[in-house]
Specification:
This protein has 378 residues and is α/β, with parallel strands linked by helices. It is 36% helix and 23% strand. Bound molecules: adenosine-5'-diphosphate (ADP) and magnesium ion.
Length: 378
């Protein structure tokens, strides 16, 4: 009986993966920072060690209640940048094979999104997903050259703030601030189904060094906005896009892949009642775009006919890279601090919604008893 149960559980797990298609959700808990919480304080976050939940489970203790969650992977605080990248490198590699890939970092401000995506500039060990991905891609390009593949790569970087696109590689920063030209940075889909943003700066790149230089430029451009616009960087989505065009004349093959790496705006709930004017507009824009993103991923996972891409700039921009045979990874960043427990729970619930595709399993075939463990295996 036990063996049967285990076999069934495995089978169901595989079915879930199939139904989920190319959507994966990872959770990463950062270490406690020096000024956060006391040693003897109750730790709100723990990691269950049962066979089923090992490396995939996380529990949040809130008001005396334990809230369990399961994801495709859970990274504990001591997980290094290198170990995180190991789990992502295949996905990155598939962009060279012509896949469209999106990797999102989601979480409240201070939960480790930028650390996960960018890392600490200048520190080798601390390099995040973006620099590591680029190094891997350019290294692989060199190897594929020997097999007759020629690749061209293009980079663009933009920020979406209050549903407005800002070009982070534009030489002329001033023109991007105002709304003098409404046609500027409009998202357009052409006949081939590719998306482009009008007037957006696109740079041909030949090495990961060149991209590093552009990343620095973009970071500077972002921080200019920051002083002007009230911590804009945590209130805006950062979208890094690498387009890959590969040709192999001997094999008469051609591939076009895209790698989108996205550092999302902070997901913290700002109380609507407390904020007014610009702040309220900002809050609404973030809430709307983050919930549109989860709606889109949810609809894709459920294989719904209508996917609501048009509800936000972010999802409309990424439309060709979300769905179809493209691949999506959501990394949900969580702070372990007792003071953040509310937000951590919110983030995990968001992630669980994106991850909760078992809903589409026909109920008559399987008892829901077996489905529940993925969300609440306690
Ligand atoms: P966010 O981008 O979500 O606002 P950050 O990436 O800026 O958050 O992280 C907040 C702070 O926590 C930073 O000081 C960062 O260096 C630190 N931090 C985040 N994740 C880690 C980690 N995995 N290991 C060590 N320090 C981290
Ligand atoms: Mg950040």
């Amino acid at each position: 009986k036990v063996i049967e149960g285990e076999a069934l559980r495995k089978k169901l797990h595989n079915t879930i993966l199939e139904l989920k298609g190319n959507i994966r959700v990872f959770c990463r808990v950062r270490p406690l920072l020096l000024d956060e919480g006391m040693e003897d304080e109750t730790k709100p976050i723990s990691f269950p060690t049962t066979t089923e939940a090992l490396g995939r489970g996380i529990e949040v203790l809130h008001h005396g209640q334990t809230h369990p969650f399961m994801f495709d992977k859970v990274f504990m605080p001591q997980t290094t940048q290198e170990e995180v990248f190991e789990e992502v490198s295949q996905l990155v590699q598939s962009a060279l094979d012509g896949y469209k890939v999106c990797i999102f970092a989601y979480g409240q401000t201070g939960s480790g999104k930028t650390h996960t995506m960018m890392g600490t500039p200048g520190s080798y060990d601390d390099k995040g997903l973006i620099p590591r991905s680029l190094e891997q891609i350019f290294e692989a390009r060199q190897k594929l050259k020997e097999q007759g593949w020629k690749y061209e790569m293009q980079v663009s970087m933009l920020e979406i703030y209050n549903e407005t696109i800002r070009d982070l590689l534009s030489a002329n920063k001033c023109s991007t601030e105002g709304s003098a030209n409404k046609q500027q940075y409009a998202i357009k889909h052409d006949a081939n189904g590719t998306t482009y943003v009008s007037d957006l700066t696109i740079v041909d790149v030949r090495s990961s060094k060149e991209v590093s230089y552009l990343l620095n430029r973009a970071a500077q451009s972002r921080s200019v906005g920051k002083t002007q616009m009230n911590e804009q960087s945590s209130r805006s989505h950062f979208v890094f896009t690498l387009r890959i065009f590969g040709v192999n004349e001997t094999l008469e093959q051609q591939v076009q892949g895209v790698l989108n790496l996205i550092d999302l705006a902070g997901s913290e709930r700002l109380s609507k009642s407390g904020s007014t004017g610009d702040r309220l507009k900002e809050t609404q824009a973030i809430n709307r775009s983050l919930s549109s993103l989860s709606d889109v991923i949810f609809a894709l996972a459920k294989k719904e006919e209508h996917i609501p891409y048009r509800n936000s700039k972010l999802t409309y921009l990424l439309q060709p890279c979300l769905g179809g045979d493209s691949k999506t990874l959501m990394v949900v960043n969580v702070s372990p601090a007792p003071s953040s427990v509310n937000e951590s729970l919110c983030s995990l619930r968001f992630a669980a919604r994106v991850n909760a595709c078992e809903i589409s399993i026909p109920r008559r075939q399987t008892s829901m008893r077996y489905m529940e463990p993925r969300l609440s295996y306690g």
